[in-house]
Each structure stands twice: as structure tokens, then as C-alpha cells.
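On to our target:
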Amino acid sequence: MGDLPVLWATLQRLNLPATLDCHYPAPLHWKGPLSPGEVLAVWLLFIVSQGDHCLNHVQSWVDQHQTTLAALLAKPVVPTDLHDDRLADWLTRLGDGDSFHAVERDLNQQTVRVYELPTDLVRIDTTTANSYADVLSEQGLLQFGHSKDDPNRPQFKIAAAVLDPLGMPLATAVVPGNATDDPLYVPAIVAVRQSLGVGGRTYVGDCKMAALATRAFVAAGGDFYLCPLSQAQLSLAQRHELLLPVWLGTQVLQKVSRPGPPGQPDERVAEGFYVDVELTAEVESKEVRWTERRWLVRSKAYAVAQQEALERRLSTAERCLRELPTRKRGKKQLFHTELMAAAEVIMKRERVEDLLSCTAQAVMTRQKKRGYGGRPPTEKTDVSFEIEVRRDDKAIEEKKREMGWQVYGTNGVGMSLTQVVWAYRGQYRIENDWSRLKGRPLGLTPLYLQDEVRIEGLVYLLSVALRVLTLLEWQVREGLRKDGSKLEGVYAGQAGRKTARPSAELLLGVLKTISLSVIEVNGQTHTLLSPLTKVQKRLLKLWELPTDLYGKLTRGFPKGKRS
């Protein structure tokens, strides 16, 4: 049985089968006891429980768990209901048209109401996913583009808006792999507003969200944005002008700290100040005016990392420059002009051309050879070069003082520096979603589907699976936070290890040991449920599920079939 009862209870809380049936009614000649929504829900059970989205693995899994699934759904479940051809057809329906976006809206409203979720902060980001399929056309979904994964394979792009602090997907879009990120933010915001309403919500994104049109759109709707400003919005010269009072010691900086270890002082993590700028833009043919607060923030850890990286580049450049004149086997001797050209290449490669200088000096060595056998004595002159490298210490120090600074723009003028810093540092939550979606446990990549509509449908289906995982994880973490306690007994081989922030994968793994045995004694069939452990019972309580969830399922278990 494992985690299936908990997952099914979660899908029922979301009203997922009924929502899917509403937007994807059964087509003509539909066969089988399950509705379309129930078929997709059982498929989601397989995906989340097994960490596998391969279509041809589902039918055999259903056959192995047929009796358990029938008990969960309170109706017969036939393995052929989830044949891979039928599932492929459903991917086509999910990826075709706008029906799934309506499903997302209904699920968002149901989830927020049932779980009483905070809705004041939404994060938006994009990622890419590679495919083994070929590029079909210039207008198709699969295209070559900038990729952090594998630039040699075509890709598509996924944009998502997620609810903080869960990381739960609210809106998902799939676009061609060569699409730019800037135009993807406004549609994501529109989708969130359709689900949760307009006004009073903060949207956090990276520098690609900082396009003036995007910021104006958010401000026009009465919402707030927070994003770093790139040099396209604030040039390097403008940043230097704003930071000059800091370097002169005339600008007072606000501090941001985090609590230190017991008995230790608080740790300073950032410092900064703000300037207010009046902005004007046009949104839907109407002029919009608003005040943008620009926070100039210096992160201590970021500054240290940048300075250490600069020192590494300087050391690498100095070493390579001094090795230039060294003659080695098979290496052509370089003369003055060639040496200086090679030195310039090295300094540009390490991005230190304004911080280092070098000169090449010729060194002449004379070697006398005595006469022999009637040959007169000779003198041989050998010319070699030495490179002298000099650091510009003043320029290096000026470079280091510029490091660690970032400019954040927001129209939420009521936000303090502490709120700004911690709000943006929470962007790792959406990165965790991408890791789950593309890696374990959902495993979107590597992708072998050839049909682009089905690829889009698979992404939408996995976004629902991601929603389930984030909800299960958040419920437990929030319950532990309210209790001020930690969970023990969830790490294999480390019974005493405790955690206040267990992952959904870890929690579901705890349930894998729950089993049900069906035996026949003297012509009578009996079901035997393995006793629940202490941590399993506590998880059911944290998920606000009945402690006899598994027992009730056992009592209604069909007799004489496999579990």
C-alpha cells in the first residue's frame, strides 16, 4: 500500500478528479468504469509514488496494485484503462488548447481555500528542458537556444509562477526553446491574478522581470514587484554615482543581520540604502505613474566570493604571464611583439587588463666556444625574454569595493531593507521546483517524446504532481514550525537524526514500509495490515488525515485479489 492512501487523500482534498472531469469530459465511445479525471488521477498516483512518468510502465503497475486502487476509488480498476496509447491521447488533450489553464485556476482556488495558504508573495522564473526529438520547424516548440544543460540538443522553455513559501505552481506555460524570457512574465502574472485576484500581492523575479513594461503592468494593477535591476535599467556609471557617497563615508547604511549561534552575536549579512525614482510608462494605452524605490544592497558573502574570485583570476594571469617566455620542447620562441600580444590575450581572458600591466625585457647571454682543430674560437649570443608583471593596487582596491553590490527595484515603498533582502533570497524555492521537475523525483529530462503537443501536456501533468509534493512537504514543515518540534525516525540508518524541514520525498519514503497481506484460512479471506510506526502516525496527524486511514481502507478491501 505504501504512500498510495495518503496521495489519494491529497488528490481528493484538491478535488482533482472532479475538476479534471469538468474540463475534460469523456469523449464519445469512452469505455471502462473510471472517468477521465480518475484515469489521470491514478496516473498521478503512479508518477508521484514511483518517480516515473514513462507511459509504458503504468499498466503493469496498475495490474500489481489493482486491488489497492479499487479500494481507494471504491470501484473496479482495469489495467487496460491506463494503457500507454490511452495515456498518450490524454497528453495530447492536456497540451492542446487552454483547458489546462482553467484547471489550474480551479485547483488554485480550491488549494488556497482548503489549506488556508498565504497568497501575498509569488515567485516567477523560467527554465529549459532538453529533448532527444528533432526540431520540426522554425515555429515549433523544440528549438536550439541558450541552455545551461546541453546546448547540443534542442530544448523547450518552461515559465512558472509559484506560491511562496511552498513553491507550489500556480501557473505554468510551455514556449519554444529560443523564446526570450522578458515577455513571459506578464502572462504569468495575468494567470495568477485570474486565480487569486488583483492588488496587494508581491511578485518576485530575476533581472529579466525588470523590463519597464513588466514593472509598469504590475504597478498598474495595484500589485508590487521586486527584482534586481540590470545595467539595461541602471548603467554602471549611474551605479558608481549612487555609490560614491558610500565610498566617501557620507552615506549612512542600514544593516541586515541573522541570529548567530547560541551565545554568539548576530551575523551581519547585508547593508544598504535606497533612493526613490518617479517612473512613467504606458499600459494598455493609459499612462501609469508610480514611485520606484531602488535599494542598493551589498551582500557580505557575495562580496567575499567576488573578491576571492578576483584574486584567483589575478594569480592565474600572473602565473601565465611569467610562463610565457619559458621555452619548452615543441614551443616556438616568442619575441617582444608576440609576447605582448599573447600577454594581452591572457589578461583579457582573465578580465584583469585594467588591473595588471607587464613589460618584456630582452636578456642577452654570450657563450664563448674555444677553437679546435684549426677552427678559430667563436662567441654565440643567445637572446631570451623576461616578463615583469605589476599589480595596480589602487585599481584593485577600487574594484574590490565595488563588489557585492546589487540594485533591487520595487514599488513597495513600505518594504524595509530586511524584507527586501530575505524576500529575494528566497528565490531558491523555485529553483528547488526546477530540480524536482527535471531531476528526481519527477524526471522530466531526458525527454524522449516526439510529439510537441504531448510534450506540453506532460509538463502540465507533472506540474500537478509537483503541486502535490509541495503541499505534502509544506504541511509537515508548517506543523513542525507551529509545534516548535522536529521529526525523528525519517532517515534510513539514522534513527536518532531529527529535522524540522523534511522533504516530501523523505516523508513519502517513510510510508513505503506499510503493507497489507491477504491470506485465506479455512476458506475465509483475511486482510492483515502491518502496524503503523510512531513516525507514520505522527505524519498522518501533521497531514490532518485520520489515524485509521489505512485501517478503514483495509476494512473495505475487496477479497481474494492481489493488493
The radius of gyration is 31 Å. Residues 92 and 454 are 5 Å apart (CA to CA). The longest helix spans residues 452-483.
